[in-house]
Write a structure and sequence with these properties.
The chain is an alpha/beta fold. 30% of the residues lie in helices and 20% in strands. The chain is elongated and about 70 Å long.
Length: 291
Amino acid sequence: MAELPMVLIDVQRAGPSTGLPTKTEQADLHQAIWGRSGETPLCVLAAATPVDCFAMTLEAFRIAVEFMTPVILLSDAYLANGAEPWAIPDPASLPKFDVKHPTKPNSDDGRFLPYKRRANLAREWAIPGTPGLEHRVGGIEKRDVSGEVCYESENHDLMCRLRREKIENIAETIPPLKVIGDESGELLVLSWGSTYGPIISAVEQCRAQGRSVSSAHLRYLNPMPKNTGEVLIRYKRVLIPEMNLGQLAAHIRAAFLCETISLTRVLGRPFFIGEIRAKIEEFLDSCKGKP
């Protein structure tokens, strides 16, 4: 309800609780997307590779300050302990985040209205102690625009809907979901997080044998890219390998009414390329001769 920017990095390991502290897993997705009390969605991102952790951290910061919201960036133990060649970027080439804090009241009557929203529905972010811009923060519901403590039912309903719409608006600023391979066909293998590497390799090997399979990778999990549903519907089936018991698959089915095939495991170690390739071949072989 404070609607303040924050970036939370979750390096997932095999749980629950302390679980297997040196093993990897992807089992915090449901917690990240739906784990807060009440109707309070937030943005959830996931890095694909060790190098991608750098880029997605910058993206998480951009979204947090642009939309005045907490952002969860999901990594996992496999990525955290992984390595790959990386050219350290010139700091001058990195994106700039122009954070403009208000310095004067924003209403005609000389008051500061902390929940007077911008076009993307993000509220104003005044630096505490700025003269004339004193306002309330905290976990009690605020009145729309003015930010006063408010217990009115209709206002609570309005504020919940505004906060949800604000998170949905993030989709307007993120890239579309890209397909590697054919734009339609028998099978799409959908990945998120560190499953990116073995899935890309497995799909490439199957395509080299003439198999009708493509891949796509989700870095933005809430909200998802605006074209996600359009991509999924172009394939007869969607295979989702995950190091959990099917959390993204459940989210995809709920959001898009899309039939999915889950390849799941919670062994504490990443997928082998051969495991995913075998599942792709098994499915495509079972579809031969079927409409």
